[in-house]
């Protein structure tokens, strides 16, 4: 019993490695900010292409979402970071993660947006267009606000997935939370930093997951 | 005062795939005239109305609004034209995420480029006209169907349209709410608005319409003054339809 506490819940070690963990957390936060923003914006653009009546926009965007939802994000990340240098393209770990996540996340966010846009009735489009609003104005003032509200739980739960996935960045030596925790583990020969990292993820994401459930129940009611 | 028609539909055809929904429709609507369109479902009356602001794209023919052909021109011209043609739908289609006031100011701001003050003042005038000024800050979901439809009318009126199109404006309403919407339409007519109305409110047509048009199978079968169409219809199809709806 004593050894389990020592190995996994060693407060002394947790305290000693805390600065390292916090600097990892800071990197994770920066990474999240970048990839969530890229995903939200990229996803919206892909979704708009996806519902476009123009085939030259629609078809590539459908192929894009299909490919990047089917491709494992870890494969994509390692290819961008370790594969592309063979083509002479050197890329920093942060940029590699941002690019891989942009491709992966925007295809997932696009599907969520698309469902939201389709959930807004044709009547809303017609009412807005009949008052002389352009397509872009109709989209931005009438359709998207309703679309986003309708899929808010899905956008949020997708964002939770994105935050969790940022731990993949540890494989390209980006010193985010998991990478630093694992480094602390190897320095201290103790698993407590890993437990601490897991606890930090839990503390941050648990409330969000709860919130998603409550939203979903509210929308279903 | 010029007497060219406010709205003229010339040789209008509409095809959906193989189906010819409208075959060669010709109709002139004079300034200040209320033309009431009746006909069985599937007769093409709503489609014809929706062609008048190109929500439905005509397959052939011309729509002339106040002397200008809306079938020619850029998409920018089309948006400008739509400002001049108000449309009221069966399902109201208010924007549920905006207050009543914002519903009425949105297109004024974005499409007409009016200032916030100007748009608000105009919106309040129009809401007052449909009897709902006190609901300006309510959300659409807090209103009855009849109230929502009156806000939808105010939303169109605020843009100073030349013509108002009504596509079964009372069909989705509980019977006790129909009267308030018809009263607003009657008031509009008395103020000189040019109106094209697709509806089943025969009583309203009898009292208010200048002309009644009976459509069936994608053509105008018969048209005339309300007393002619309702009193002494010439075509068998008109008689058959009217006896069905009267029952």
From TrEMBL, chain A:
The keyword rRNA-binding does not apply. It holds the Pfam family BPD_transp_1. Keywords: Amino-acid transport, Cell membrane, Membrane, Transmembrane, Transmembrane helix, Transport. It is a multi-pass membrane protein. Residues 25-213 form the ABC transmembrane type-1 domain. GO terms for molecular function: transmembrane transporter activity. CDD domains: TM_PBP2. It comes from the Bacteria. One of its GO terms (biological process) is amino acid transport. The chain crosses the membrane at residues 24-49, 70-103, 187-209. GO terms for cellular component: ATP-binding cassette (ABC) transporter complex. InterPro entries: AA_ABC_transptr_permease_3TM, ArtM/GltK/GlnP/TcyL/YhdX-like, MetI-like, MetI-like_sf. Part of the binding-protein-dependent transport system for glutamine; probably responsible for the translocation of the substrate across the membrane. PANTHER family: GLUTAMINE TRANSPORT SYSTEM PERMEASE PROTEIN GLNP (PTHR30614:SF20), MEMBRANE COMPONENT OF AMINO ACID ABC TRANSPORTER (PTHR30614). This is Polar amino acid ABC transporter permease. It comes from Pseudorhizobium pelagicum.
From TrEMBL, chain B:
It holds the Pfam family ABC_tran. PROSITE patterns: ABC_TRANSPORTER_1, ABC_TRANSPORTER_2. It is a peripheral membrane protein. Residues 7-242 form the ABC transporter domain. SUPFAM superfamilies: P-loop containing nucleoside triphosphate hydrolases. Keywords: Amino-acid transport, ATP-binding, Cell membrane, Membrane, Nucleotide-binding, Transport. It comes from the Bacteria. Its main location: membrane. GO terms for molecular function: ABC-type amino acid transporter activity; ATP binding; ATP hydrolysis activity. One of its GO terms (cellular component) is plasma membrane. It is found in: Cell membrane. Belongs to the ABC transporter superfamily. This is Arginine ABC transporter ATP-binding protein. It comes from Pseudorhizobium pelagicum.
């Amino acid at each position: 019993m004593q050894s389990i506490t020592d190995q996994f819940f060693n407060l002394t070690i947790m305290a000693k490695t805390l600065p390292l963990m916090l600097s990892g957390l800071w990197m994770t936060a920066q990474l999240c900010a970048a990839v969530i923003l890229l995903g939200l914006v990229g996803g919206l653009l892909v979704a708009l292409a996806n519902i476009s009546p123009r085939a030259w926009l629609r078809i590539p965007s459908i192929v894009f979402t299909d490919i990047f939802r089917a491709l494992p994000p870890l494969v994509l990340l390692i290819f961008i970071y370790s594969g592309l240098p063979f083509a002479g393209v050197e890329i920093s770990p942060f940029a590699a993660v941002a690019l891989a996540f942009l491709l992966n996340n925007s295809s997932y966010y696009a599907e969520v947006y698309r469902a939201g846009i389709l959930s807004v009735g044709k009547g809303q489009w017609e009412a807005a267009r009949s008052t002389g609003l352009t397509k872009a104005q109709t989209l931005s003032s009438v359709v998207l606000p309703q679309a986003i509200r309708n899929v808010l739980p899905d956008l949020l739960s997708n964002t939770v997935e994105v935050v969790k996935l940022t731990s993949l960045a540890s494989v390209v030596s980006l010193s985010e939370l998991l990478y630093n925790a694992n480094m602390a583990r190897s320095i201290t020969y103790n698993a407590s930093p890993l437990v601490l990292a897991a606890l930090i993820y839990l503390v941050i994401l648990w409330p969000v997951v709860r919130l998603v459930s409550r939203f979903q129940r509210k929308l279903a009611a | 005062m010029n007497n060219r028609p406010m709205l003229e539909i010339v040789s209008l055809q509409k095809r959906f795939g193989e189906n010819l929904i409208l075959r060669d429709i010709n109709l002139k609507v004079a300034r200040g005239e209320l033309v009431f369109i009746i006909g069985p479902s599937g007769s093409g009356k709503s489609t014809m109305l929706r062609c008048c602001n190109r929500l439905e794209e005509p397959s052939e023919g011309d729509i002339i609004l106040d002397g200008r052909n809306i079938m020619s021109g850029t998409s920018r011209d089309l948006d400008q034209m739509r400002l001049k043609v108000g449309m009221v739908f069966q399902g109201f289609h208010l924007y549920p995420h905006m207050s009543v006031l914002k519903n009425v100011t949105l297109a004024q701001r974005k499409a007409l480029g009016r200032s916030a003050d100007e748009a608000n003042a105009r919106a309040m005038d129009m809401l007052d006209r449909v009897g709902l000024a006190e609901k300006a800050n309510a959300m659409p979901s807090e209103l009855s169907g009849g109230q929502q439809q009156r806000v939808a009318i105010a939303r169109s009126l605020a843009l100073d349209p030349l013509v108002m199109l009504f596509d079964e404006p009372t069909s989705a309403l509980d019977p006790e709410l129909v009267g308030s919407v018809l009263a607003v339409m009657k008031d509009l007519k008395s103020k000189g608005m040019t109106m094209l109305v697709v509806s089943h409110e025969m009583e309203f047509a009898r009292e208010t319409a200048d002309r009644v048009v009976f459509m069936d199978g994608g053509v105008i079968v018969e048209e005339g003054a309300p007393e002619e169409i309702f009193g002494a219809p010439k075509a068998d199809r008109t008689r058959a339809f009217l006896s069905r709806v009267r029952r």
